[in-house]
Design goal:
It is a single chain. With about 160 residues, the protein is an alpha/beta fold. The protein is built from 8 helices and 5 strands. The chain has a single domain, classed as Rossmann fold. A 5-stranded parallel sheet has the order 3-2-1-4-5. The longest helix is centred in the middle third of the chain and has 17 residues, at about 95-110.
């Protein structure tokens, strides 16, 4: 993995000292820096983060900000269409969550980003995997609830 998109849930935990996943977020962030893994931050994530906190608190000097553009919109619509063709799989997920996840996955796809870190692991199987399978591409999905040591296969 040489690039990763940071999800809103990751950013929240990175900057919220009293969150149970704060230490995991810090460890991953340091790992990305140490390994020179390019970190991307979507303008969509910035909008979501700004609901509860000032976006200037985000680690902007360490990330590449990517705007949501025409091509992302076109791809996101295609991805959303894939999901609604199997309504039973996404019936219990809020419509806005599906739309925003499709937008982020479209940005990953269009920019050939090969990693995605989020706390929302339920989206892995119900939203992200069907799109990946249909489009024939792969990304490394990082679950923020899994510590860096476990992710790397280390005992301690």
């Amino acid at each position: 993995m040489d690039s990763v998109l940071l999800d809103t849930s990751f950013c929240i935990r990175l900057l919220k000292n009293n969150d149970p996943l704060h230490s995991n977020a810090k460890e991953y962030f340091k790992y990305f820096l140490d390994k020179k893994i390019e970190m991307y931050l979507s303008s969509i994530v910035i909008a979501e983060y700004s609901v509860k906190d000032d976006a200037n608190n985000l680690p902007l000097e360490f990330v590449k900000i990517i705007p949501f553009d025409f091509f992302d919109g076109k791809t996101a619509g295609e991805f959303h269409s894939i999901l609604i063709s199997n309504k039973s799989q996404v019936a219990s997920i809020e419509r806005n969550v599906i739309k925003d996840d499709c937008k982020l996955i479209a940005q990953i796809f269009n920019r050939k980003i090969n990693g995605y870190i989020t706390k929302d692991k339920k989206s892995f199987g119900r939203i992200i995997q069907p799109i990946l399978q249909n489009k024939g591409f792969d990304i490394e999905l990082l679950d923020l609830e899994v510590s860096l040591n476990v992710y790397k296969g280390e005992l301690f």
